[in-house]
Amino acid sequence: MREEGEGYDDRRDEGRHGTRAAVHAASGGRLGAAHPRQEGPTDLRLVPPALAAWATSAVMLDAAPAWVTGTAVGCLVLAGVLMTLRVGRARRVSRAGRVPGVRTGDRPGWPAVTAAAVLVCVAAAAVSAGLHGADLRRGPLPGLAERYATVIAEAEITSDPRLVRPRVRGPAPAPTAVLIEADVRRVETRDGATMVTRTPVLMVVDVERRRSSSASSAFSAGDRPSPWLALLPSTRVRVTARVVPPADGGDTAAVLRVRDPKVPEVVGEPSAAQRLAGRLRAGLREATDGLAPDARALLPGLVVGDTARITPELDEAFKETDLAHTLAVSGSNLTIILVLLVGPPGLAQRVERRGLAPRLGISLRTTALLGGALTLGFVIVCRPDPSVLRAAACGAVALLALATGRRRSLIPALATAVLLLVLYDPWLSRSYGFLLSVLATGALLTLAPRWSAALRARRVPPRLAEALAAAAAAQALCAPVVAVLSARVSLVAVPCNLLVEFAIAPATVLGFAALATAPWAMPVAKALAWCAGWPAGWIADVARTGAALPGAGIDWPGSWTGAALLALATVALLLAGRRLLRHPWWCGACGVLLLLAVVQPPPLTRVVTGWPPPGWRFAMCDVGQGDATVLAAGAGTGVVVDAGPDPVLVDRCLRTLGITRIPLVVLTHFHADHVAGLPGVLRGRQVGAIETTAYQEPVDQAEFVRREAAARGVSVTRAAAGEERRTGGLSWRVVWPPADPTVVPEGPNDASVALLVRSAGLRLLLLGDLEPPAQRALLRSPAGPLLGGVDVLKVAHHGSAYQDPGLLSRAAPRLALISAGADNTYGHPAPGTVAALRAMGAVVLSTDRDGALAVTGEGAELGVAGD
What distance in Å separates the CA atoms of residue 548 and residue 556, rounded to the nearest whole number? Predict the structure, then answer.
C-alpha cells in the first residue's frame, strides 16, 4: 500500500512519462530512472550532523585529551542551551495557541533542534575519535617502536593478508611483501618482560619467492604462494619481529617487520564464521582456476574483493581508466544481490513489488529479515572494508525502514550510514576509499536522476541516459579526489565505465552463485564461473584497451589545490555542456575532437605534432628508468629491444609509433627495468619470437618472461655472438655475449645482448647494460674491429659513470642516446660520461631531458627528433 499523504498518482505519471520509475537503493542502482517526486521532498536533516561528525573525527584523532574533553563538554552544554530555548518557545506557542508569523503545522525552533543535533554528534565524534586515537598512544608498542626493539608478539589478524610488490624503479623490483593488519594481544621483550595489550599494528612479511624445481614447471606453475596468504582474519599468530614506527599517521601504532617469514606459527584458530568465509572464497578461486588469465584474476575481485591474482599490469590498467572501484567490493555488489531478493526498492511496499521474495510467497518483514541476514553474510565474506561497511549500513537502514513499514529516503539512509560508521570507526573519516565511496553514492542519489531526466528530455534513450548520467555524475564528484591520489585525470573514465556497466551485474550474480555452490557442487560452480568469465573478461579488455590509448589521461597536480582546480574546471565544463546540449552539431564536433585527442591515430598525430618523424629508423621510448627501443623494419613493423619497466608506457609508445607487427623482441638481460614491461609489448600485436641472453638471472624475472611468452604462444630463444638476422631493410649482428658456455659473466649486466645494426646506410650499436669488464672483453672479441665509426650509440647502462674509454673511442659515435628516468636516484646519466662523449664530437641526448627520441636519415642527413 502507498503511504498516506504521499500525493503522487502513478497512473497519471505513467501517462505523462510512459513508464513507471523506480528508486534504487544504495550505490550501483539505476538511479537515473527515479522520479524526483516519487518520495516527496528530500529529507536533508541528517546531512549536517553526519558531515559535522565526519569532520570532527578527522580532526580529533590526533588531538590532545584536553582538546577532546573541552570540545565534547562545550558542544553538549551548547546543545542543552539550544534545546532549553526550543522547549521554552514551544511552550509559549502552545499557550498562545497561534503566534503571528508562525503558520499552523510549523515546528517552532526546528533550526535549534538541527543545531543541537549537530552539536551532540560533534561531541560524540570527538569522544570516539579521542578514544581511538589514544589507543595508538597507550601500551608498550609505541615506546618499543621508538627503540626499534625486537620482540616476540602474539597478534590477532584483522584483515586478509595481501601481496604487495612496489612498482619497478630500478634493475630489480622491490622485495615482494605480505601486508597483514592485526591487533597485538601480548608482547614479550628480550629481557623476558611480558605485557598484555590490544594495539593495532601492520605486519610486514618479506616473503621468499619459491622457485620451481624444473624449467618446464616454471612455464605454468611459477612461484608457489606464501603460506602467510592463507591466514584468515581472527587467526592468532606468534611472530618474532622488529618493531618500527609507522610511516604515516594512519590507524596503526607500529609496524612489525617479521624476521622469520617462512612458516607462520599459528597459536589460535580463526572463528567459525571466518572459516566458512574462507572456505567460500577458496571455493570461488578453485572454480575460476580453469578460466582465461584475466577472468581468472578478475572474477574473485569483482565478487568478494579478492585481488590476490590481479597482476600489477592489470591493476594499473584499472587505475588508469578509473575502474579500480570494480576491484574493491562496493555497494553495487550488495545492491545487485538485494534487488534479486526484494526487487526495485521503489516498489518494495506496493502490491506490484518484484524480486524473488514475493514470487516465493515471503512476507515483507520476513523479506527484510532475510535481506539483513544476506547483508551480514556479505560483510563477513567480503570483509569489512570501508566501501563494504558503507554499503551494508545503507542497506541495513533501508531494510529497517522496509520492515517497519515507514517510508524511507536514500539520502537520510546514506547520512545515517556515514554518521554511524564514523562514530564506530573514526579512522574511516581519513580513508580515501570511504570518501570516494560516499561521493559516488551521493552522486548517484542526487545528480544522476536530474542529469538522466535532462538527457531523456533531449531524446536520449532512457537506458542510455540512465547509464550515462550515473557514470558522469560519479566521475564529476570523485575525479578531484582521484587526482589527489594519482596526480592524473582520466579522459576515458566515463566511456570505460559505460562499457563495463552491463557486464558487472551478470559477472557479480554468476560469481556469487559460483561462490555459494562451490563447497557442495564444484562442477556446477565451475560451469557458473565459466559463464561469469565472459563478462569478467570483457571488463578486463575494456580496462586494458582504455589504458593503452595514448591520450587516456593527462597529468594533473596531485594536491588539494589541484583537486580544487579540477573541481572548478568540472563546474565550468558542466555549465558549458548545458549550453552545448542545445546544439547537437556542436556536441558532435566536441565528441569527435575528444575522441581524436584520446585515440591519437598515428597519421593525425604525425601531422599535428610531427611525432614520430617520417622515415624514422630508430626510436628510444621514454619509459622512465629503463630501456625500450624500436628498430623500424617496414610499415607498422619493428624490432623491439627491451621492454622497459612499465607495460602501459611501452605499449603507449609502440601505439604512437604505429607498431602492430614485431618479428622479434630482444631482451638484453633480465633486470626488471628491461623486461617488466613485456606484457605491454605483447598486447594486441603479432610477435614472432623473443630472444634473450643465456644468463638466466635474476631467476624470478627470467621465469616471468617465460610465463608471459608461454601464455601467448611466443617462442623464446637465446642469443649468442656471431648470430646474424635480417627483416626487410633491417639487418643486425649479435656481438655479445660470447657463444662459449664456459665464459661466465660477473652478473646480469655483463651478460647483456649487444647488437650491431644496419638500417640502410645507418650503423647503430646497442650495448644494453654492459659494464666496463664486458665492454673491454667485447673490444678484444672477434666483433671488436667491426665496432668502429658507428652513427648512433645506445649508451650502456643508462649513461652511468662506468664506461670503458677504449670502447667509446672505438665506436666514436656521431649521436649518443641515453635512456634514463627523470629525477632518478642513480645519478643517470653521469655528467662525466656525457662530457666524455661530447669531447669526442658526439651529440648527446637523453630521455630524462628530451623525452622520446627518433633517429632519421643517414650520412650528412642524419637527424634526431624528440616528442
Answer: 19
